[in-house]
Design brief:
Blueprint lengths: L19 E2 L9 E6 L21 E2 L6 E2 L13 E2 L5 E11 L10 E5 L2 E2 L17 E2 L2 E7 L6 E9 L43 H8 L6 E3 L8 E8 L10 E7 L16 H9 L2 E2 L14 E2 L1 H9 L3
Antiparallel strand pairs: 1-2, 2-6, 3-4, 5-14, 6-13, 7-12, 7-14, 8-9, 10-11, 10-13, 15-16
């Protein structure tokens, strides 16, 4: 647990040691197969069931009821599992994660942790990255497998790292105390070309512009490990002097999207023109799927873009 978020919580979390599942027909991890909490995990955060299903959008009562945002991550015992030094977590997808050519930016798998941007303005309602922008994260080694036997490490990508989770798109306060009405998309990655420096000095609403409707998450391209399909993900925390303890909230299979397919029905046609007309104007908060040109506006340029992908 990041030291700035450490809480003393008098809660006993029931740890179910047998493999368990939550669902079998969604884009999220369905089962955990093994969990070793390792040395010195965050106390009370050792329930691997929290890594299954959808990422947290809202930090529920009884503690600090707020939205999950890039400045205020999921942190409660029912939302994240901690992996101490020498520990690991293995999860399984019922439906394999595939290296689909239509996946945005080539990203196939998303991992959601407990990372968050440092807020230059403290507990003000704006949310403001400093210069340079800073992110609190705790690393973690990512490995993927098609069969739970042969494992492939994803080099250069940390499990509990950039990009922090964002639950909603329609708030301007990153610590809003009521859920939003426009949920982010947890199967849509942030553009992996973005670097931490791209967030230098940005306010919360400006960060949401860069997220373009995404709910965040660390992105993995299966092509980087030479695989076309995987069903298993392992997060491990090697023993090291940095005393890091990655926290994991969820895993998601990225949804494929054809360019120009605004309504995401698999075909680029007149219905996508109507979808653009329905979101005319500023893309934020709920029109990012209709904004195809990168200018933040849903307008005639996006209609021409759809025509360029017409089927």
């Amino acid at each position: 647990m990041k030291r700035s978020l450490t809480r003393t919580i008098g809660i006993t979390v029931l740890l179910i040691s047998a493999p368990a599942s939550v669902a079998d027909d969604d884009p999220y991890a369905d089962h955990y197969l093994s969990y070793d909490q390792g040395a010195d995990p965050a106390p009370g955060y050792t329930n691997p069931l929290t890594a299954l299903g959808e990422p947290a959008r809202f930090n529920e009562p009884p503690f600090d009821s707020t939205i999950v945002s890039v400045f205020y991550p999921p942190w409660q015992p029912a939302e994240i599992v901690s992996i101490g030094q020498g520990g690991h977590l293995v999860v399984e997808f019922d439906t394999p994660v595939t290296d689909d050519p239509d996946n945005p930016y080539g990203i196939d798998l998303l991992i959601f942790g407990n990372a968050f941007f440092s807020d230059w303005d403290g507990h003000q309602t704006t949310g403001h990255c400093g210069i340079p922008a800073e992110i609190f994260s705790d690393g973690g080694v990512i490995e993927v497998s098609p069969n739970n036997v042969d494992w492939y490490e994803v080099v250069g990508v940390e499990a509990d790292g950039i990009f922090p989770t964002e639950g909603y798109l329609d708030h301007e306060d990153p610590r809003a105390t009521v859920p939003g009405e426009v949920p982010s998309d947890f199967t849509l990655p942030v553009n992996p070309a973005l670097q931490l420096s791209d967030f230098d000095g940005l306010y919360y609403v400006e960060i949401l512009e860069l997220y373009r409707g995404s709910g965040g998450g660390v992105g993995v391209d299966l092509a980087d490990v030479g695989l076309t399909k995987i069903s298993y993900v392992r997060i491990s925390n090697p023993e090291n002097p940095l005393d890091s303890t990655p926290e994991i909230d969820a895993f998601a299979d990225v949804a494929p999207r054809k360019q120009g397919d605004v309504n995401q029905d698999g075909t680029v046609n007149i219905d996508d023109i109507f979808a653009i007309l329905g979101h005319w104007g500023p893309a934020r908060p709920n029109g990012w799927a209709a904004e195809l040109t990168g200018d933040g506006q849903v307008d005639i340029a996006d209609i021409f873009a759809v025509l360029g992908y017409w089927e």
